[in-house]
């Protein structure tokens, strides 16, 4: 693992999991080097997890369970990591992977992605949700969204790519002021070196994304995952053949969408025409 990659600040959940892992490792009389060799990772990587500074990747918990005979305790501790108020249960595993991603690619045709939303835009979505949400639920979801958006500024070494349909801005969700603030916000984020925004024009003779939104990410171990979300469910995709198809489509859309410079110019014209 590169020492230049920024690690997240320890959270209570991560520190608890790390302490439980360390306790069972010592109980088994196994060194960090020994356990790292058995589960196929570096001792530095394992030490970071025990210190509560790294999220345990998929498969790691099960490997440690088998190696340390932990009676299912590590799985229980890992499950606590994904219990985040304000996030849909089916989205939480993807949200954990996002926190470690070195690259994140998002194509959206339904609404502005959560990572790019302003508070006013997000609140509009929550207020209009059906069945209706209570005030406390709305505030919890808004807080979770704002917390998740910290990834864009706290992980400067992660490459973020967004392809957004032009009609998402033309729809005027939340009204004129909300839309203008949203455009300003996206333009501001696009100034960051690690964030690229491309607009897919309303009129386009060919389009590789007609089957719906696409989310792809690459882990620090260079493993790719995808995520597909419906009205009331979500699916984490790890099958290489499925991910290959989505990567092919995303690559084609990057060529079909406006360039980064032309996308920024279009958003500026939208803002100026207001």
List the topology elements.
Elements: H1 12-27, H2 32-39, H3 43-50, H4 60-68, H5 73-81, H6 92-98, E1 103-108, H7 119-127, H8 135-149, H9 151-154, E2 159-165, H10 167-170, H11 176-190, E3 195-200, E4 214-218, E5 224-229, E6 234-237, H12 240-256, H13 260-272
Parallel strand pairs: 1-2, 2-3
Antiparallel strand pairs: 1-4, 4-5, 5-6
Helix pairs in contact: 1-5, 2-3, 4-5, 7-8, 11-13
Fold and architecture overview:
This protein is an alpha/beta fold and 274 residues long. Helix content is 49%, strand content 12%. The chain has helices at residues 12-27, 32-39, 43-50, 60-68, 73-81, 92-98, 119-127, 135-149, 151-154, 167-170, 176-190, 240-256, 260-272; strands at 103-108, 159-165, 195-200, 214-218, 224-229, 234-237. It has a 6-stranded mixed beta sheet, sandwiched between helices. The chain is elongated and about 70 Å long.
Shape: elongated
Order of helices and strands: HHHHHHEHHHEHHEEEEHH
Structural class: alpha/beta
Number of helices: 13
What is the rounded distance between the termini?
48 Å
Q: Which regions contain 5 or more consecutive residues with pLDDT less than 50?
A: 1-10
Taking all residues together, what is the mean pLDDT? 89
Compute the CA-based radius of gyration: 20 Å
| Major sheet attributes | 6 strands, mixed
Strand order in the largest sheet: 3-2-1-4-5-6
Beta-strand content estimate: 5-15%
The beta-strand count equals 6
Provide the helix percentage: 40-55%
């Amino acid at each position: 693992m590169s020492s230049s990659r920024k690690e997240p600040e320890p959270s209570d959940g991560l520190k608890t999991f790390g302490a439980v892992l360390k306790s069972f490792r010592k109980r088994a009389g196994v060194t960090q080097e020994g356990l790292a060799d058995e589960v196929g990772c570096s001792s530095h990587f394992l030490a970071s997890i025990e210190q509560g500074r790294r999220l345990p990747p998929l498969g790691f918990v099960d490997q440690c369970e088998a190696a340390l005979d932990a009676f299912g305790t590590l799985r229980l501790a890992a499950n606590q990591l994904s219990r985040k108020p304000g996030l849909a249960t089916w989205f939480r595993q993807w949200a954990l992977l996002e926190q470690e991603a070195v690259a994140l690619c998002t194509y959206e045709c339904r609404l502005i992605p959560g990572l790019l939303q302003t508070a006013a835009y997000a609140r509009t979505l929550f207020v209009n949700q059906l069945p209706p949400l209570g005030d406390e639920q709305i505030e919890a979801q808004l807080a979770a969204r704002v917390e998740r958006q910290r990834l864009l500024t706290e992980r400067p070494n992660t490459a973020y790519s967004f392809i957004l349909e032009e009609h998402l801005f033309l729809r005027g969700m939340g009204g004129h002021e909300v839309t203008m603030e949203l455009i300003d916000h996206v333009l501001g984020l696009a100034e960051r070196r690690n964030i690229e925004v491309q607009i897919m024009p309303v009129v386009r003779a060919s389009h590789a994304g007609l089957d719906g939104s696409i989310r792809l990410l690459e882990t620090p171990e260079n493993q790719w995952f995808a995520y597909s979300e419906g009205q009331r469910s979500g699916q984490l995709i790890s099958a290489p053949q499925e991910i290959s198809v989505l990567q092919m489509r995303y690559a084609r859309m990057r060529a079909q969408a406006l360039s980064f410079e032309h996308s920024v110019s279009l958003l500026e014209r939208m803002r100026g025409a207001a």
